[in-house]
Amino acid sequence: MAESAKATTSTTTSPTRAVGGALALTGFVLALLVGFSAGNSIEEILARAFVSMFGCLFVGLLVGRMCDCVVSGFLADYALKHPIPNSDIDVFDLVQQIQTEHEQADTASQKSELESKNPD
Fold it and tell me: What is the pLDDT along the chain (120 residues), one digit of tens a residue?
């Protein structure tokens, strides 16, 4: 069970999921507001809102991933142009180490949540 949580955490980065989730919720709320203002039935409003939410989630995940690649590229370029003097530590390696520590902490917290829910 812990391996599947680790695989989920490592395949998609948190900023990517955050952008996707924010855009999905925004699309859902906007579809609800527009549907109510147009006087549509609740079934039609909810159906369109869910379609809008999943469409915006897909677009948001793409945008978040693109932003993640741009930031990673910028960090790599910055690390090459601005090395830390008198040190073997590379800025990009430091960022990777911090991200790995965050992923490990997320995995540990998910594992502890699962263990607290299932004391067996």
Answer: 444 444 444 454 578 889 999 999 999 999 999 999 999 999 999 999 999 999 999 999 999 999 888 988 888 888 778 777 766 766 667 777 878 887 888 788 777 777 777 765
Half-sphere exposure of 99 (CA within 13 A, CB side): 15
| Residue 13 DSSP code | -
d(CA 67, CA 77): 15
Give the number of other Cβ atoms within 10 Å of residue 35's Cβ: 19
Q: How many domains does the chain have?
A: 1
By the 10 Å C-beta count (0-12 exposed, 13-18 middle, 19+ buried), 1 is classed as exposed
What is d(CA 30, CA 42) in angstroms, rounded to the nearest whole number? Answer: 14
Segments forming the whole domain that contains residue 31: 2-117
CA atoms within 13 A on the CB side of 96: 9
Quote the tokens at residue 71: 């930031």
